[in-house]
Structures are given as structure tokens and as C-alpha cells.
Request: fold
Amino acid sequence: MSHIAVIGAGLIGRSWASVFARGGYEVVLFDANPEALTEARALVRETLADLVDNGLIDETVDTVLARVSVSDSLEQTLDGAIHVQENVPERVEAKREIFERLTELADPETVLASSTSGITASSFTEHLAHRERCLVAHPVNPPALIPLVEIVPAPWTDAAVVERTRALMSQAGQTPINLNAEIPGFAVNRLQGALLNEALALVEDGYISVEDVDRVVKDGLGPRWFFMGPIETIDLNAPGGVRDYMQRLGPMYREIAESQTVRGYSDDLLDQLESERQKILPVAERDERMAWRDRYLTELAALKRQRSR
Reply:
């Protein structure tokens, strides 16, 4: 057993291939779509080149890329794999189908991890043989630039499998966190969802524009959150720390929470969001802006690495 199998050569799969290869692992990238495989290594090369140019990889692009191969055979991809990272579409049925095949073809001791953003592993692995080696390892997109990985076991996942996965992610240069039990959306999307729901409510109720609500985060909350989390933020925002902060502002936060209600996302709201966003960023310019985002993330990752030395 000698390599990592990445299932799915889309955006997330290719980024995972870059992560594991730069971490020193041999990677076999599988996709049932021949067209996806045809361009996969070239796109991985582009990602690696950006990482090298920003000092995030100490080896040459060719050295790291030599660790990545592609295959249109699932059997070949899984033969000898120590870890499988699955990246099929976000549907329970698709997850169940691919995990049934992975269970049939992979060695019993191979860890089977899903990149799902919020589907619990128990919903697609309960019926499997050797289900104790199945879990979620959810990255933040794109994992080659944002290191966090949520490790979420099913109720039957072996604790040793959780530790093996955490160690693998650390070795690959990621920042793994453990959830102690399954919860829909895990931690990342529950926190992101809470902020997003309130942002949309403020827009829908006419309190703020789409452009200004984005400014609240990117120019207000975001700069601190780049290098510390919400608990440390409040700990440092009052002379006496966390308890002092909550004694001062806790009543306000409680009042806010009591005023919030669960709501859907109406067509009128979506029309408003699309209209305001397209005034700021025309559809024809989205690809260019996405490339700008990735360049910015690369530069921020490089800065964070320098500051941590």
C-alpha cells in the first residue's frame, strides 16, 4: 500500500491531488469522464506553479507533479491505496453508490474519506462492510490554498481511523480539526450559514445593501478572522477576557438571537441578490474575478506561512 487515491478530477479533486503530492505522497487521480482526466494534470500543474511562485512549495513543479498520475480504472486506482479521498457530486445517492464500489475494491484497511460539505457519513455508509474505516474529511475550497479539514466520524468509525486521517492531513500540510460527533453541516457550514442567513435577512428587510453587507465582513470582521477565530477575538476585545466581554455584550447578543427567525430564500430575494451583484460584477467578468480570488488566497497563504515561522 503506497499511494493516495483521489476519486473525481473536478476542482476539489485536482486541488486534493496538489495537496497530497506537495506533502510527498504518490497520488492516483481517477475520474470516469475521460475529458476530465485529459486536462487534469495540466490543471494540477497550474496550481502547483502558483504555489511554487509564492514560496508555498520548496520543490520544483515537475518534482511534485511527477507524483501525480491519472487513471480511468477504479480498480487500478484503488490497488494499494492507503487512503481514498472521494469527491463525487453532493447527493446521498451518489455517495452511497461510490462508497459501495470503494468498499468492494479497496483493501479492508484502507481509509475511505468523503469530501462532502455537509452530508453525514452515517447516511451513506451504514450498510457497508468494514464501515468502521469510513468518515468525512471535508476541506474548504480550494484545499490547496485553505488548509482547514473537518474530520467527522460516523457513530461506527474506528477511533484509530480518525487519528490516521488527522495524521495524514497534518503530514500533507493541512490543518485538521476533529468533530466529536456528526451534526448536519458540520462546523464550517454551520458557522458560515449562521452569518449568511443573517446577512441575507438584513438585505431582504432593507437594512443594508448587498455591497455594504459584504463590506461588513471583508473590511470589518474579516481582517481579524484571517488570523484568529471568534472566541479568541472576544477574549482579546475586553480587558478581562471572555467572561468580561460576555458580561458587557451578552445581553445584546441574546436580544439579537431572540429577534432572529428561520426563513427561506424567496425568489424576490434571489432576484435582488443577483441584480445587485451583477451591477457590481457583470457575469462576463466572473471568471476573471475568480482567478483574482485564487491569486489573493495564494498570497495570503504565503503571508500566513511567513508569519508562522
